[in-house]
Design a protein that fits this description.
Elements (H helix, E strand, L loop, with lengths): L1 E2 L7 E3 L2 E3 L2 H17 L6 E6 L2 H11 L5 E11 L2 E9 L12 E9 L3 H10 L5 E9 L9 E5 L3 E3 L26
Parallel strand pairs: 1-9, 3-10, 4-5, 4-7, 7-8, 8-9
Antiparallel strand pairs: 2-3, 5-6
Helix pairs in contact: 1-2
Length: 183
Amino acid sequence: MTSFDKMEGRTMTDERERMTWADMGTASRTLAQAIHDDGYRPDIILAIARGGLLIAASLGYALEVKNTFAMNVEFYTGVDSRLPVPMILPPVPELVDLGEARLLIADDVADTGATLALVKEFCTGKVGEVRTAVIYEKPRSIVRCDYVWRRTGQWIDFPWSSEPPVTGGSGEETWSPPATAAT
């Protein structure tokens, strides 16, 4: 298990950890380097959508893995609000003829770990080896990830999900770009 828990650049406010886009670049590169240095050469990267899509793509580029998949799992319905158990949503990846493959599961956070545990259990026995990589791991997670950038007990505001949807979903106003000076 590898961890990079560096305080530089981390902003803590309102008992939340706020990740920036620059942090995302650092996290993905640091995780990729740790995976490479560990000698692990995944054949496939499986993203847990939606939060794991960005880290999975970044790891795919950094590790030169073109074989990437996504798996949709619904668990969180809001800030610290979740369903009783995580649910795999269709379409479900068919992991056939992959008995020797090395699979890396990528997600943004292992909070309770229930989502990662479900996906790991789904993949076990269908591939040769399963490892996990996350940007953040929380102390309460039931899964101890193989590769972790940071550990925190706080709620995390990710740059891709800290703004309300532009569609106005969830009763929020729609987003408007900042006004610019006319030229």
